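Teaching note: in complex prediction, the entire set of molecules is handled at once rather than each chain in isolation. The prompt given to students was simply: 'Predict the structure of this complex.' The entities are:
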Amino acid sequence: MKTDDLIEMLAAGNGTTAAGAPGRRLAAALGWGALGALLLMAVVLGVRQDLGRMALEPMFWAKLAYTGALAGAALIVVLRLSRPGARAGRAAAALALPLAAMWLLAALALGGAGPSERDALVFGTTWGVCAFNIALISLPLFAALLWAMKGLAPTRLALAGAAAGLLSGAAAALVYSLHCPELGAPFLGIWYPLGMLIPAAAGAIIGPRLLRW
Amino acid sequence: MDGAEDRLRRLFADALAGDAAAYRAFLKDLGAHLRGFLRKRLERLPDDIEDLVQETLLAIHNQRHTYDAGLPLTAWVHAIARYKLVDLLRRRAAHEAMNQPLDDEEEWLATEETESAGTRRDLAALLARLPDRHRLPIVHMKLEGLSVAETAKRTGMSESAVKVGVHRGLRALAAMIREEA
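The expected output is the structure of the full assembly:
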């Protein structure tokens, strides 16, 4: 087939396309993925019984804001990396803000604590499972987001895969907050990001293979 | 340079609003620019140029929903062309060719070649390998110029199945190119 024939073929009929389709596709993936993550968390780990009491703690809300802000920044990065020619620069820098805020809180908490309390602030009671649980909960989100991104047009595939992984990790951390008993800022500043980095690293590795279009 | 951006942008906006003639003009213009852009970068793989022009045009068509009207069209097209070029070089494992600089996004507009060389791959042959539910809508609508309703009547498919068939068929065609190369 000659190139002119291909052009005739592509131009024939209707070239219209729905505006805002990329956003809708990602929103659908995020919605279904979050539903899967919630179910996985509720079935495998269980929602906290004392959620009502937890809701009285300011740090519980700080935790939700922290994971929510990370997920929001990661979503913007994902949206940008899904489109050819758009740069992720400033959106990626926004990821550092919630992290810096949590580390500031962590420094204050550690500074105000006696030497004997510091271990508890850093390790809590669940440091051994936290990152693993977040990575586990991120799986449905991760799969859905990779599906959505493949239908768009990422041009830097390792970076795009990492961003999809990071978003699924951050959203999973938000969901995990409904199970997790930890409220120490040092704990949240260390183990939560570690959990998010697991799917992000996986995305960077499998992105170049899975996201090709 | 701005002239090309403005012209392409206007044509593309009309095309997305349903103007087939504008879309044809847009793709022709783009094909010429792509040919010039790729000829310079594929000096060692001259036989691949026209195949890659076709693959890139098909990719631009299939991925046209990812264009954000707020961003320069040039940057969008350049990113796609560059992606397809790098993808081809990777597939060929042509490490030497990868050392050729991939220049900035303005530059591809500076060259233009309307003369198209032959292709090695025949899209028509690939098209023939698609399943009927994809192939028939493309043949009737895209090659014979029938409407959705006429295509639906002739194939016994529903109108929405015809539209989905065209869309998925062209994506499947792009996937076949990817697998084959």
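Point out the following to students. Residues 1-119 of chain B form one domain. Residues 42 and 95 of chain B are 12 Å apart (CA to CA).
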